[in-house]
């Protein structure tokens, strides 16, 4: 059995434009993000999806709404694929974080497996949550074609899982808004 998994990141938000950490903050798509989702739906129209799964966060669900309306399909939501909670970093830009939390910034706490911004989720915790979601998909949809609509770090965690990468190898993978990548899982 082979699971064909297509992964996309939600459309653009104002936080993306301003370079703010969104994390678990439930920000909506902006106008460009909605257009990106519409364009993506057009590109996906020639693929027969058996299942569409979205993060339960607003920006992902809005992207799923646009895609599913265009494709005439339904989707389910999963909390396994919500974005990593970034604690005190949420809502701030990188420059603001460097100024307000220089010690955390200097130790690169978002990139270390067992560290996180104060009040946030560690990289390992986020990846283990995503791994559980992927195992669920493999168990229940092992021979299906699945579209997953998620977030930047979640897409990186999916890539790590699918390519069997170490934590320190995952940061090089970036999925832009409404970009798509596919994997085949045995």
- Please trace the helix and strand order, writing H or E for each element: EHHEHEHHHEHE
Low-confidence stretches: none
What is the number of E strands?
A: 5
Q: Helix count?
A: 7
Termini Cα gap: 6 Å
Describe this structure in words.
By secondary structure, this protein is α/β, with parallel strands linked by helices. Helix content is 40%, strand content 15%. It is built from 7 helices and 5 strands. The chain has a 5-stranded mixed beta sheet, sandwiched between helices. Strand 2, helix 3 and strand 3 form a beta-alpha-beta unit. The longest helix is centred in the last third of the chain and has 18 residues. It is globular, with a radius of gyration of 16 Å. It starts with a strand and ends with a strand. 39% of the residues are buried. The model has no long low-confidence stretch (mean pLDDT 97).
SSE diagram, text form:
Elements: E1 3-9, H1 14-18, H2 31-44, E2 51-55, H3 58-71, E3 76-78, H4 94-100, H5 102-106, H6 123-140, E4 145-150, H7 152-163, E5 180-185
Parallel strand pairs: 1-4, 2-3, 2-4
Antiparallel strand pairs: 1-5
Helix pairs in contact: 2-3, 6-7
Quick structural gist:
The chain is an alpha/beta fold and 186 residues long. Helices cover 40% and strands 15% of the residues. The radius of gyration is 16 Å and the shape is globular.
Which key features would you list for this structure?
7 helices, 186 residues, alpha/beta, 40% helix, globular, 5 strands, five-stranded mixed beta sheet
């Amino acid at each position: 059995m082979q699971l064909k998994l297509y992964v996309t990141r939600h459309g653009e938000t104002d936080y993306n434009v301003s370079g703010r950490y969104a994390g678990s903050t439930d920000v909506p798509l902006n106008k460009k993000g909605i257009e990106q989702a519409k364009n993506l739906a057009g590109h996906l129209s020639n693929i027969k999806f058996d299942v569409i799964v979205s993060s339960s966060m607003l920006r992902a669900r809005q992207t799923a709404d646009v895609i599913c309306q265009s494709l005439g399909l339904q989707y389910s939501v999963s909390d396994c694929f919500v974005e990593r909670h970034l604690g005190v970093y949420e809502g701030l830009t990188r420059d603001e974080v460097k100024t307000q939390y220089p010690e955390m910034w200097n130790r690169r706490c978002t990139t270390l497996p067992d560290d996180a911004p104060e009040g946030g989720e560690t990289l390992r915790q986020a990846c283990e949550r995503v791994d559980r979601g992927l195992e669920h998909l493999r168990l229940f949809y092992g021979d299906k074609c699945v579209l997953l609509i998620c977030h930047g770090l979640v897409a990186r965690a999916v890539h790590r899982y699918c390519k069997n990468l170490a934590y320190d190898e995952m940061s090089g993978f970036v999925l832009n808004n409404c970009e798509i990548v596919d994997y085949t899982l045995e």
